[in-house]
Design brief:
13 strands, Rossmann fold, about 15% strand, six-stranded parallel sheet, 2 domains, seven-stranded parallel sheet, alpha/beta
Length: about 375
C-alpha cells in the first residue's frame, strides 16, 4: 500500500453527535487515519436535526463537505468518489442503497461498507426492509467492516455472501478521552446514552432502582429523547445533551459509570458500545450489563464489574473497596489504550485494505 491514501467516507454524521453514536466513532477512526498520513474527505447529508446541533463543524483531521441530496452528491463529489483509493459507506446513510449503487458503479478503488449497526442491519435484511443496504449489494463490496464480531461475521458470509467481513469495533479517540486530574466527584454512578426503549428496563434495574435504595448517593443520566413521564428519583440528575467535548469531564466526575447495551446488541453478542471504551480511557470504573463477548474485551471481575441486578449495583456502590475499584479502572484503561483506540482501528483498516488489495487487482488505484 502507498504511504498516503485518498479515502472518501460517506457516513450518517461527523459534524453532530446529537442522538447518534456514529459521529464519535467516525471521529476516532478518521483522526487515526490522519495520523497515518492519509487524506480523508467525509461527505455528510445536510439534514436539519444535525445542522442545528453541530459540535464539530470544522474538523482538523479531515475535509468535511455537505450535500443536499443524491443529485448533489453526484454533481459535486462523483469525481472524488471515482478517483479515491478507498470509498467507505456507513450504515444509516440517507438514501443509502442509492448511495451504494453510485459507489459500486463509479468507484475505482476499494469499496467498503462500515456497518456500525450490524445486528440491526441483519434483522432488517432478514425482514426485507433495510433502507441503507440491499442484499444484492453485499457480495459486490470488497470489504465489510462490522460493528459486531463473533457469529455475526459467519452470518454475513453465509447468508449474504460478504466476501471479506471483518470485526471492526468502535473506538475511542485517545487524544480526547483521558483521566481528569483533580476532577471534582459529583456522582456515585452515571450513565450516558440516548433514550432507547429496549435499554430502559436495564437502566431502571441498574441505576434508577439503586438510586431509590440509596437516597444519600448521587446519580446522573445524560442523553436526549427521554420521555417526560419517567419517574426520576430526586437524587438522579438529568442532562439533556452532552457534547463529546464534555464527555471526559463527565466520566471523571463519576465514581462509577454504567454501561447498558441495546437488546439487539446483546442478542448478537460481541457488540461493544463506544461508551464502554470512552469510560475506560477516562479511567472511570465500569459497571456493565452482561453479554456474550464482553469478557473477551474486558476481563469480568478484573477490568469490569458485571451487574445482573439492582443489588449488584448497590453492593458495588456501598461495599467495593477503593483499592479494588481503582484496579478495575486501571486494567480497563490499559486494555483499551492498547487495542481499542482510533489509532489502533486505523491500523486495522490499513491492514484490511492491504489484504484486499493483494487479492483484488482492481482495489487501490496505482496512481
Amino acid at each position: 500500500m502507498r504511504e498516503s491514501l485518498r479515502i472518501v467516507v460517506l457516513g450518517l454524521s461527523l459534524s453532530s453527535s446529537w442522538g447518534n453514536g456514529h459521529a464519535t466513532t467516525f471521529r476516532a477512526l478518521l483522526r487515526g487515519l490522519r495520523g497515518l498520513g492519509h487524506d480523508v474527505l467525509f461527505l455528510e447529508r445536510d439534514v436539519p436535526w444535525y445542522a442545528s446541533n453541530r459540535d464539530l463543524p470544522a474538523p482538523d483531521f479531515c475535509r468535511l463537505a455537505f450535500y443536499d441530496d443524491l443529485e448533489a452528491l453526484r454533481g459535486h463529489h462523483a469525481a472524488a468518489i471515482a478517483s479515491a483509493d478507498a470509498v467507505i459507506v456507513g450504515s444509516y446513510v440517507p438514501d443509502g442503497i442509492d448511495v451504494l449503487d453510485l459507489v459500486l458503479r463509479i468507484a475505482r478503488g476499494t469499496r467498503v461498507f462500515y456497518d456500525i449497526d450490524t445486528p440491526v442491519t441483519l434483522a432488517s435484511l432478514d425482514r426485507g426492509d433495510c433502507a441503507y443496504i440491499a442484499p444484492l449489494q453485499i457480495p459486490l463490496l470488497d470489504l465489510y467492516l462490522s460493528f459486531s464480531g463473533g457469529r455475526m461475521l459467519d452470518r454475513l458470509a453465509r447468508d449474504y455472501r460478504a466476501r471479506h467481513p471483518v470485526a471492526f469495533y468502535c473506538a475511542v479517540d485517545e487524544t480526547r478521552y483521558r483521566p481528569g486530574a483533580g476532577a471534582t466527584r459529583r456522582w456515585d454512578l452515571g450513565y450516558l446514552g440516548t433514550y432507547s426503549e429496549d435499554r430502559q428496563p436495564a437502566l431502571l434495574r441498574l441505576l434508577i432502582e439503586p438510586a431509590r435504595r440509596l437516597p444519600q448517593q448521587r446519580f446522573v443520566v445524560a442523553g436526549p429523547q427521554y420521555p417526560s413521564d419517567i419517574d426520576w428519583p430526586g437524587n438522579v440528575e438529568r442532562i439533556e445533551h452532552l457534547p463529546p467535548s464534555e464527555h471526559p469531564g463527565f466520566y471523571a466526575a463519576q465514581r462509577y459509570t454504567l454501561n447498558v447495551t441495546r437488546a439487539d446488541m446483546i442478542a448478537a453478542g460481541h457488540s461493544p458500545s463506544v461508551r464502554l471504551f470512552e469510560a475506560a480511557a477516562c479511567g472511570t470504573p465500569i459497571i456493565s450489563d452482561d453479554w456474550d463477548g464482553l469478557a473477551d474485551l474486558l476481563p469480568v471481575g478484573e477490568a469490569v464489574l458485571v451487574a445482573h441486578s439492582s443489588g449488584d449495583v448497590v453492593w458495588a456502590l456501598q461495599e467495593m473497596p477503593e483499592e479494588q475499584r481503582s484496579k478495575f479502572a486501571a486494567a480497563a484503561r490499559d486494555i483499551v489504550l492498547a487495542s481499542h483506540t482510533g489509532t489502533a482501528r486505523a491500523a486495522m483498516l490499513n491492514d484490511a485494505l492491504d489484504r484486499v488489495a493483494a487479492q483484488s487487482p482492481r482495489s487501490l488505484n496505482p496512481g
